[in-house]
């Protein structure tokens, strides 16, 4: 039977898991490793899509409600399962596959559409102790509460880079006061955001080697912290910081000194 599992491949195994409980238990005990490179998961109001990406290609699996059960589609094939919820089906497949993944994913992309109900689609991450091994985590959302459901499920010893983006494509304020206390955030090396303006203090980001983000407000003390990090940290690479408000020009001059202006340039501190 194990040889058959090796031959049929990932899409067929997902289908076989839904044939009977005995076959599902056998497959789960066999723990087949599909050696995925990355996973893209998109959660919508009545549909969950997961694109499993291998070196040889990809497999798109979609789950959606259907009358007294749910419908799952894969490679243009559809199967209807009664007396079961599509969110539970997604989570069972998702957790079993990633639990058996021996090598870390290069990338885990997780996107929550603007129409998705917050708790209904994210609560499953708290049902089991799942630790997803991925080097790069890319998450799109419109409500920052979603982070507290998903980020703790990542293996903090493997995660190296975190990126958040706004699915509304509007520049909204993002509060990460709770997120900065997570070990996943603390152990990561690179951090970036898009279409968000961070309201959390910059001191929580100085441990990263690379940051690309916009902050709602920064102070002269924040800039001084960045200077110290750049000088003292052996892993410091690059901080690309944008800001909405900065009102401490004079204090910044006291901390860093007057800016240097090349000959023939203009500036308020240019020497005559």
UniProtKB/TrEMBL annotation:
- Residue ranges spanning the membrane: these are none
One Pfam entry for this protein is: FTH
Domain (DUF38) spans 121-249
| Signal peptide extent | none
Domain of life where this protein originates: Eukaryota
Protein name from the UniProt record: DUF38 domain-containing protein
């Amino acid at each position: 039977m194990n040889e058959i599992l090796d031959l049929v491949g990932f899409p067929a195994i997902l289908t076989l898991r839904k044939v009977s409980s005995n076959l599902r238990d056998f497959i789960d005990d066999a723990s087949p490793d599909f050696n995925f490179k990355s996973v893209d998961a998109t959660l919508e109001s009545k549909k969950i899509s997961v694109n499993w990406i291998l070196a040889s290609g990809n497999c798109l699996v979609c789950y959606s409600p259907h009358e007294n059960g749910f419908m799952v589609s894969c490679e243009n094939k559809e199967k209807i399962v009664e007396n079961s919820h599509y969110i539970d089906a997604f989570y069972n497949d998702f957790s079993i596959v990633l639990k058996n993944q021996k090598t870390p994913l290069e990338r885990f992309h997780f996107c929550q559409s603007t129409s998705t109900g917050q708790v209904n689609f994210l609560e499953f991450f708290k049902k089991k102790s799942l630790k997803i091994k991925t080097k790069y985590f890319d998450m799109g959302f419109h409500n920052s509460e979603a982070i507290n459901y998903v980020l703790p499920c990542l293996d903090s010893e493997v995660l190296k880079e975190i990126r958040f983006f706004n699915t509304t494509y509007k520049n909204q304020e993002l509060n990460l006061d709770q997120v900065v206390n997570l070990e996943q955030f603390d152990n990561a090396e690179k951090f970036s955001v898009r279409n968000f303006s961070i309201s959390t203090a910059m001191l929580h980001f100085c441990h990263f080697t690379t940051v690309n983000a916009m902050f709602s407000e920064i102070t002269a003390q924040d800039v001084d912290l960045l200077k110290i990090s750049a000088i003292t940290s052996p892993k410091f690479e690059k901080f690309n910081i944008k800001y909405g408000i900065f009102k401490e020009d004079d204090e910044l001059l006291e901390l860093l000194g007057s800016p240097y202006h090349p000959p023939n340039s203009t500036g308020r501190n240019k020497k005559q």
